[in-house]
Amino acid sequence: MPHCTKCGNEVQANAQFCAKCGQPQAGAPLQAPSYQPAAGTGMSENLAAALSYVLGWITGIIFILIDKRPYVRFHATQSILTFGGLHVIRVVLGVFFGVGWVFGGYRHYGTWGGFGIGIALLGLLGLLTLVLWIVCIIKAAQGEKFMVPIAGPIAQNLAGQ
């Protein structure tokens, strides 16, 4: 049986390193670790989870269909619930205040302050959505399971975790 060239410890014939001192052994060829992407989308879980937020609920639907890993499914489901729900709220507020679902379509009905309150609420909702979107992308990319207060527990149940 061969011995380590540094410490003299007995090593296996095909050992790449000495178990005692860690010295590379001359007889064994060194192999570089090979990168093999995870199954599913061919990208890491963190990247796939972060990308499930990029276009809101649309990319959430795409990633829930193509990636079956639990971490990615959770973030894709949370994206659908959070940004889909905020989209519906935005449409309802726009219709209620006569603003239109995007900041156009001025139709002032004269009740409840109409356009003024509507545009303020839609602006506040847009700011909340932007901040939440950035936080969700960053947390998912860092590998953290950040749960949005209402949508997070529902997404966890729907994703099967």
Could you characterize the architecture of this molecule?
- The protein is an all-alpha fold and 161 residues long.
- It has 2 domains: 1-34, no CATH class; 45-158, no CATH class.
- The chain has 5 helices and no strands.
- It has helices at residues 45-51, 57-66, 70-97, 115-141, 151-158.
- Helix 1 (45-51) packs antiparallel against helix 4 (115-141), helix 2 (57-66) runs antiparallel to helix 3 (70-97) and helix 3 runs antiparallel to helix 4.
- The protein starts with 44 loop residues before the first helix and ends with a helix.
The overall average pLDDT, rounded, is 78
Percent of residues in helices: 40-55%
The number of helical runs is: 5
The helix/strand series, from N terminus to C terminus, equals HHHHH
Main beta sheet: strand number and arrangement? none
**Number of spatially distinct domains:** 2
- Structure classification: mainly alpha
| Overall 3D shape | rod-shaped
Q: List low-pLDDT spans.
A: 28-38
- Span from first to last CA? 50 Å
Which percent range describes the beta-strand content?
under 5%
User: How large, in whole angstroms, is the Cα Rg?
Assistant: 27 Å
Query: How many runs of DSSP E, i.e. beta strands?
Result: 0
